[in-house]
Amino acid sequence: MNTATSAARLVVDQLVGWGVTDAVLAPGSRSAPLAYALETADRRGQLRLHVRIDERGAGFLALGLARATGRCVPVVTTSGTAAANLHPAVLEARHSGVPLLVVTADRPTALRDRGANQTTTQNGLYAAAVRAEAQLDAADQDPAGWRHQLARLVTAAQGLRTRTPGPVHLNLGLVEPLLPPADDLDGPGPAVAGPAVVQAARPDPPEVLPAGPPTVVLVGDARPAVGAAAVALARASGLPLLAEPSSNARVAEAVAGYRLLLGDDRPEAVRRRIERVIMVGHPTLSRPVTRLLGRSDVELVVVADGAEWVDPGARAARVCDAVRLDGPGDPGWLAAWRDADRALRPRVEAVLAGAGVTGPAVAERVWRSSGADDVLVAGSSNPIRDLDLAGPHPAPPEVHANRGLAGIDGTLSTAIGIALGTGRPTTALVGDLTFLHDVTALAVGPAEPRPDLRIVVVNDDGGSIFATLEQGGPDHAGPFERVFGTPHHADLGAICAGFGVPFRRATTLDELDAVLATPPRGLEVVEVPLDRTRRRDLDAALRALVR
Questions:
Q1: Mean pLDDT to the nearest integer, 139-144
Q2: Sheet arrangement for strand 453-459
Q3: Structure confidence at residue 115 as a pLDDT band (50, 70, 90)
Q4: Thiamine pyrophosphate enzyme TPP-binding domain: from which residue to which, for each copy (predicted)?
Q5: DSSP structural state of residue 490
Q6: For 65-79, 322-336, 423-437, 465-479, which range has the lowest pLDDT when averaged over its residues?
Q7: Secondary-structure breakdown of the chain: helix, strand, coil percentages, each rounded to the nearest 5
Q8: Which of 22, 98, 468, 543 is packed most tightly, with the most Cβ within 10 A?
Q9: Is the dihedral of CA 12, 17, 18, 21 positive or negative?
């Protein structure tokens, strides 16, 4: 067994011992020892290997798998620009708290800083985006020392001691020969003890708050367990529940029209009476929420289960692991929110019904067609905001979204990872630019695990979200279409045919309902064409409901 093979097997054996169940590989020459070790582990049933040709997509696939399973998922690349292409996924993992282990193969130390082929400075490549990093060189193998370094990395990725998971980086210098001997293709790694047992840090008991002030529970992007805890708090305390789509707290009693109600400028608006906000998760979707969190007359209580927390307005009065009230909230306060929501809902539905096939109408159909056993992935930009207009759901699906940095990149790869990680029927609702941005995610090799994933593409031929912002106003109409609208005229059906992915087009809501009536089987794409020119007027009509 040569040095590189021994190093790779040691790393993979330790990761399997830590409970790693999935790994993602983007092929390369310098990373060949890791490729062989991972393939052997896959054949032995020790983990499930996913091979992708695009490193950026591979990173987001690993992120989706880690988001779905809650386990650390390694993504392995060769050296050079391959490692740099993981940076977007690393950033999203950092800001979403997802346990991602980046393993980059590198030249040995002696070949660095000499102009060697495909060699750059990979130590510290991801800078402050990673929670821990380590440099190991196969030429200097110390099995006990490597065991410790891998334990440190996985512990940091999982947030076992800090309760703040995130990405970590292992840069592995590998020396030639890079291939295992022909008579030892899948032999054992070096003998070394299994992983250390690391006790996870435990949260503090809930902080007790007085029940008195008019309080709302505001839940942003959150893991299912966190969303469920927020729902339990709102129910036990009798408080209004304002939940974003990816909060996993958007249950039947949540205030569906909270975003519009928080923008209500009328003197009698219920939002004017808010005195305290209990914030859970990472709210990102709307300016009314941001303004609420920045109000100086509102006490902000942040519930955060780790070392970092969200406080965009820098107004947090207290930060705690969990809270409970010392008594029930005012029933009249909860009734006021529910009455306002019930009065608003038919008016919202009337506006949407009169607008025909729109983003919000499509989102409503996708939301309604998903049940408690399903998974929904919401793309950034308009799709997740359109879901935010959907009505109450008696048994909502599990919802995921890349809201750490709210980019559109890697969404299809993330959705594939989530579908594979959960093993459940999954629907992704994305815009056309999001689809095109990550279209190589459709290149799933014939030997690779394939998800049951339906990708619904709301295609308005460009960036309609900008039409709802200041740059979409008439005063800036001249350059808008070219630099913000960005029409592409892409033929999505032809693109899918090129990848061998089943494709359908739904031009009416009834056609869409017929497609959604059956669960996805395998990977498929459904396009819903829209007219982008009406988007700004639709948003204005919705906002006018509370003016």
A1: 84
A2: 398-400, 375-378, 426-431, 453-459, 523-529, 503-505
A3: low
A4: 396-517
A5: -
A6: 465-479
A7: 40, 15, 40
A8: 98
A9: positive
Is residue 409 very low, low, confident or very high in pLDDT (cuts 50, 70, 90)?
Answer: very high
Lowest mean pLDDT among 21-30, 142-151, 339-348: 142-151
Radius of gyration (C-alpha) of the chain in whole angstroms: 25
> Is a pLDDT exceeding 90 seen at residue 122?
no
User: Residue 477 half-sphere exposure, CB side, CA atoms within 13 Å?
Assistant: 5
207-341 and 356-546 share one fold: yes
**Residue 529's closest CA among 428, 461, 448?**
461
User: From the CB of residue 179, how many other CB atoms can be counted at a distance below 10 Å?
Assistant: 15
For residue 241, give both structure tokens: 């529940």
> Could you confirm whether domain 3-184 is CATH 3.40.50.1820?
no
User: Do 110 and 69 form a contact (C-beta atoms < 8 A)?
Assistant: no
Sign of the alpha-carbon dihedral angle for 107, 139, 44, 133: negative
Who's near 228: CB < 8 A, 6+ residues apart?
Answer: 248, 249
pLDDT in tens, 390-408: 999 999 999 999 999 999 9
Task: Name residue 400's beta-bridge partners.
Answer: 377
CATH of 356-546, one of 3.30.420.10, 1.10.1740.10, 3.40.50.970, 1.20.120.790: 3.40.50.970
Structure tokens at 530: 């829209």
CA distance 141 to 494: 51
Instruction: Give strand pairing partners of 399.
Output: 376
Architecture of domain 207-341: 3-Layer(aba) Sandwich (3.40)
CA 302 to chain centre: 21
Q: Are 20 and 168 in contact (CB under 8 A)?
A: no
Which tokens go with 1? 């067994």
495 contacts 439 by C-beta, under 8 angstroms: yes
* The predicted structure's pLDDT at residue 117: 66
- Beta strand residue intervals within 138-235, DSSP E: 168-173, 207-209, 215-219
Q: Where are the domains of the chain?
A: 3-184, 207-341, 356-546
Cα angle value 539/540/541 (rounded, 5°): 90
pLDDT of amino acid 471: 76
What is the predicted pLDDT for the residue at 113?
A: 67
HEC profile for 80-96? CHHHHCCHHHHHHHHHH
356 Ramachandran zone, left/alpha/beta (phi>0; psi -120 to 50):
left
The Cα–Cα gap between 217 and 239 comes to: 7
Structure tokens at 119: 């060699």
Percentage of the chain exceeding pLDDT 70: 98
**Residues sharing a CB contact under 8 Å with residue 490, sequence separation 6 or more, in sequence order:** 432, 436
Strand partners, 418: none
The pLDDT value given to residue 193:
74
Report the pLDDT averaged over residues 485-507. 96
